[in-house]
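Researcher: Let's run the pair from yesterday's discussion. Sequence first, then tokens, for each.
Model: Starting with the first of the pair.
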Amino acid sequence: MKLDIRMPLGLLFVVLGLLLAIFGVASQKELYERSLGININLWWGLVLVLFGSCTLLLARRGQQRSEQAGATPTTQSSNRGTTGHE
């Protein structure tokens, strides 16, 4: 089993992004008056969810590729030791 750091990091970003986006949706508008009315928690939460989702997608794709590589053994030439000058 290979350790792929993309899986836990993707999950971390998705969870933190969801928490931040939920806070942005549930918070009051007066909180965002200083930021020109932009709900920065919601937007950055969505960015984190998108980034985490892409990371998880890449981790899953890499896992599928490694499984396919392990299922189809590569055939090597039986003449590896010879030089061809016989």
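Model: Moving on to the second of the pair.
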Amino acid sequence: MSNKDLRRKRIRARLAQYDMTAAMLADMLGINEGHLSKVINSRINVPIELASRIARALKTTTSYLKLNK
């Protein structure tokens, strides 16, 4: 499985674990859902600050979510 697929799978699993939607996470992070979708689907490089905020919101690490380079 590629890092891209692992990222998508792990983020979606964490969202489900916390009964959260991508829209809810995007709102928590102060970004729009389209931007978060690009992050989840590895369509953009994720700044470390945003990667850290996503990991904190999902109570995990950037490494686990494959958000680090």
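Researcher: Give me one sentence on the second I can quote.
Model: The mean pLDDT is 95.
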